[in-house]
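Annex B.
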Amino acid sequence: MKRSTFLILSAFVFFSGFSQAQESGQIIETVNSPTARHECGAVAFDNQLFLIGGRGIKHVEIFNPKTNSWKKAGKTPFEIHHFQPVVYGNEIYILSAFTGKFPRETPLEKVWIYNPKDDKWREGPVIPENRRRGGGGALTVGDKIYVAGGIIDGHHSGTIPWTDVFDPKTGKWVELSDMPHRRDHTVAVGDDQYMYLLGGRTTDYHEEDNYGAFMAKTINKVDRFNFSTGKWDTLAEDLPVATAGAGAVMIKGKIYYMGGETGQVAAHNEIQVYGINTRKWEIKGSLERGRHGTQPVVIGGKMYIAAGSGNKGGGPELSSTEAVALH
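Kelch repeat-containing protein: predicted structure tokens.
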């Protein structure tokens, strides 16, 4: 091969690789570490990551990306797990969550609200008795909070396709149309046009099964709710690797879905990316440590994800923090 040809091919390989950069996670060194936990919630607020809840009663812990440091705030008022927290105004809301021990965990009866400035919790409105669940997705859009999916009876039965909208100003709940695929251990992302429900499973226990057989009952369909029409549809492209208990964010016309659990022992580490315009999924990289039961956030052009479980089920609980650069 001539030297000039070699150089051209080398340049092509280099720039091709560069244009297809992988969005892979890297565990970072931090000042302090979060408490090892899983089935917790994470949300970005005031350019910091707030890690909340999980099995047992845990401190709220706050990560500052500018200093790569963690600090502790107060504890949750009781055990809260299996939820996706959302920001409304200057507070953090929890609307679909469990309390109690595996496998018959109990849905919360009320909305719970955390004020980061005061480091205080308060009770919100009562959740209608016939719409209580944990493990659903939640999303703030404008002045409303949407909740979809979940399960009624812990890890035993009652996976549902419900969709509801909650008005924080009035405390009222309104039932909307059911999604096409019932699912729990799911996550919601969206913009002012659509809400997307990704991943999850049907956690239905049957007498002929052992507890844990439901781990493999994951959902690869992605359902989409149209805020204008109030109707659901399903994307033509399935999630390449369907998992439950994963996390997701939506930014710059892309959905990033990562981690989760299935029937395999190790928690998943794939970072799967959906282009809103291309309508295609790609596996773009991986987390350094597979994890489920936690969620990523975006701060300053990077994704951060912390804690979670390294295998399916309850352990090992992790205390590491990963950063994922966005390309």
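The longest helix spans residues 3-19. Residues 22-325 form a domain with the Neuraminidase fold (CATH 2.120.10.80). Further annotation is deferred to the next reporting cycle.
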